[in-house]
TrEMBL record:
This is M24 family metallopeptidase. Belongs to the peptidase M24B family. One of its GO terms (molecular function) is metal ion binding. Residues 9-146 form the Creatinase N-terminal domain. It comes from Qipengyuania algicida. Residues 316-534 form the Peptidase M24 domain. The keyword Aminoacyl-tRNA synthetase does not apply. GO terms for cellular component: cytoplasm. Residues 153-173 are annotated as: Disordered. Keywords: Hydrolase, Metal-binding. PANTHER family: XAA-PRO AMINOPEPTIDASE 1. Pfam families: Creatinase_N (PF01321), Creatinase_N_2 (PF16189), Peptidase_M24 (PF00557), Peptidase_M24_C (PF16188).
Length: 606
């Protein structure tokens, strides 16, 4: 089949919009579940523009309007990448949050224009805000049930038909029946008849199922309608259902074809339905409203329960981290030998790390695309290497690798910044890395009263950088799932503000977060140190009330060549030595020969 150029794809979309009587269209990176990562069938923005990042959107106007009539919107993480991948002759590059598709359309669409959007890809709050903004300019926002890009994307991949599989209670630590009963109790106590669970990881957690429909995240494309009587409808493509899955779900869960979901919503006339605007697309709200249901905006009742890991999940994470630590340690030893010779590039390094992880049969997948970043690329916090951007790892430079694995017991996420010899890192590199390390230690050692949120902890990780007049532009910590999403809410450690949802959520015992301060010098080098931590009760003599702290879960050596010991306090040196003693204790039994000798040397006291 002839591949259309991006210019031809844009022209085909405009022709389709004209057939529908539309003057424009908005294209997000999203699926029907508002997932962070989406299947190939839902990569509409990538098909139209060539942009391969994980966050962004575009807006297209019909022919004849001012300028190019099309724009792609990305935040500062993708300033370089979007220009490498998207043709500037076809699309304007627009920065977020300074502008947005709605603001751009309000400024560029003529009065009376009809702008379409796929109601099954956008959140209800986006739709309401965009509609209000455009209405002021005399522009109508029109919800669509089908996507005009699908009409012109001739070779669009089909959604995955991989089977959904039971997730054993020994890993989950809690039965699906128990989880559904807790939701039913909540619905009854609030006077609600039902709730729609549409986030894929929430469905997976609630029913104790996993799948293979989205890269890096073991979920199955499906919905759940949970009722106050404890029953639930599970909407999933019939070809994905096995006898084992049916037996696992039991009689209280009715399995229905996924394409019956919208019709089932229409049958809820007169019912009171709880919906989470952060996870349910506008199409669900609009279908229920049209049916005559009463809608109540409530948080997805699985989100907090999923974030607080039970004892089995905590132990599963510890085991997964130990397995992962051994693989990453083998990789770092290999890198220390091969990279200084030259000839190793970013893609080769990422593939080698995947190879080391794959030696463990418990490793099921990566948890996200590896950030394998050399030299100036390391200064791009969310850099994604591909054939076009790939560069050799230069000797005498910093290399940053942010990666993770999916194991049956847990999900890992680790960043290590290493010096690639020969020679020594610059004084500036050592200073910045040591300040990042000091911030990492501050957060790792923190104790705080119950009720503290991530916004209140964030400054601890930045304070030593701030003292030098520098900072980093991303959050310090995100939640992590149990053999689920590597980015999980509701908790987050970040600067306070509406731009970072979850910052105000109190951190509770059982929550897992990343601890990942960094520093980035544009075009030169980047530094990030990331471990995962488990929130645990803190024991403080004479403490009043309940206090919490963190148990470090990730065990891989840190690069001492990038540390100025003179900048560290005695307590920080003690943390370093204690941490590396734990690395040795945890990882040494899993290594042998030269790998073990390397680990022993790296874990020697500072």
């Amino acid at each position: 089949m002839l591949m259309l150029t991006y210019e031809a794809r844009l022209a085909a979309l405009r022709e389709e919009l004209s057939k529908r009587g539309l003057d424009g269209f908005v294209i997000p990176i999203s699926d029907e579940h508002m997932s962070e990562y989406v299947g190939e069938y839902a990569q509409r923005l990538n098909w139209l523009t060539g942009f391969g990042g994980s966050a962004g959107s575009a807006a297209v106007l019909a022919d004849g309007y001012q300028g190019k009539g099309a724009a792609v919107f990305t935040d500062g993480r993708y300033t370089v990448q979007v220009r490498e991948q998207v043709d500037g002759n076809l699309f304007d590059y627009e920065p977020v949050p300074e502008t947005s598709p709605a603001k751009w359309l309000a400024a560029n669409a003529p009065k009376g224009a009809k702008i379409g959007y796929d109601a099954w890809l956008h959140g209800i709050e986006w739709a309401e805000a965009a509609q209000k903004l455009l209405a002021k300019k005399g522009v109508e926002l029109v919800p669509l049930d089908d996507n005009p890009i699908d009409a012109v994307w001739a070779d669009r991949p089909a959604p995955s038909d991989a089977p959904a599989v039971p997730y054993d209670d020994s890993h989950a630590g809690r039965s699906s029946a128990d989880k559904r009963a807790a939701i039913a109790d909540w619905l009854k106590s609030e006077g609600y008849d039902a709730t729609v669970i549409s986030a894929l990881d929430s469905v997976a957690w609630l029913l104790n199922v996993r799948g293979a429909d989205v890269a890096n995240t073991p979920v199955a494309l499906s919905y759940v309608l949970a009722r106050a009587d404890g029953t639930a409808d599970f909407f999933i493509a019939p070809e994905k259902v096995t006898p084992e899955l049916s037996q696992h779900l039991g009689n209280a869960v009715t399995i229905r074809p996924r394409d019956e979901f919208q019709g089932a919503l229409a049958d809820l006339k007169g019912k009171t339905v709880a919906l989470d605007p952060n996870h349910a697309v506008a199409g669900i709200f609009q279908t229920l409203e049209a049916a005559g249901a009463t809608l109540v905006r409530e948080s997805d009742p699985t989100v907090l329960a999923k974030a607080i890991k039970n004892a089995a999940e905590q132990q599963g994470h510890r085991e997964a981290q130990a397995r992962d630590g051994a693989a990453v340690s083998r990789f770092l030893r290999w890198l220390s030998i091969e990279a200084p010779k030259g000839g190793i590039d970013e893609l080769t390094a990422a593939a080698k790390l995947r190879e080391f992880r794959g030696l463990d049969p418990a490793m099921k997948d990566s948890s996200f695309d590896t950030i394998s970043a050399a030299a100036g690329h390391a200064a791009l916090p969310h850099y994604k290497v591909d054939e076009d951007s790939n560069i050799p790892i230069p000797p005498s430079s910093i290399y940053l690798v942010d990666s993770g694995g999916q194991y049956l017991g847990g999900t890992t996420d680790i960043t290590r910044t290493v010096w690639v010899g020969p020679g020594e890192p610059s004084a500036e590199m050592i200073d910045r890395n040591t300040r990042v390390l000091k911030g990492h230690i501050e957060l790792a050692r923190a104790t705080f009263p119950k009720g503290t949120n991530g916004g209140q902890l964030d400054t601890l990780a930045r304070m030593h950088l701030w003292a030098a007049g520098v900072d980093y532009g991303h959050g310090t910590g995100h939640g992590v799932g149990s053999y689920l999403s590597v980015h999980e809410g509701p908790q987050r450690i970040s600067k306070s503000g509406g731009a970072f949802p979850g910052t105000d959520t109190p951190i509770e015992a059982g929550m897992i977060l990343s601890n990942e301060p960094g520093y980035y010098k544009q075009g030169a080098f980047g530094i990030r140190i990331e471990n995962l931590v488990l929130t645990v009760p803190a024991k403080i003599d004479g403490a009043e009330g309940d206090w919490l702290g963190f148990e470090t879960l990730t065990f891989v050596p840190l690069d001492r060549r990038l540390v100025d010991k003179a900048m560290l306090s005695p307590a920080e040196i003690a943390w370093w030595n204690d941490y590396h003693a734990q690395v040795r204790e945890t990882i040494a039994p899993r290594l042998e020969g030269d790998d073990l000798a390397w680990l022993e040397a790296e874990c020697a006291p500072l």
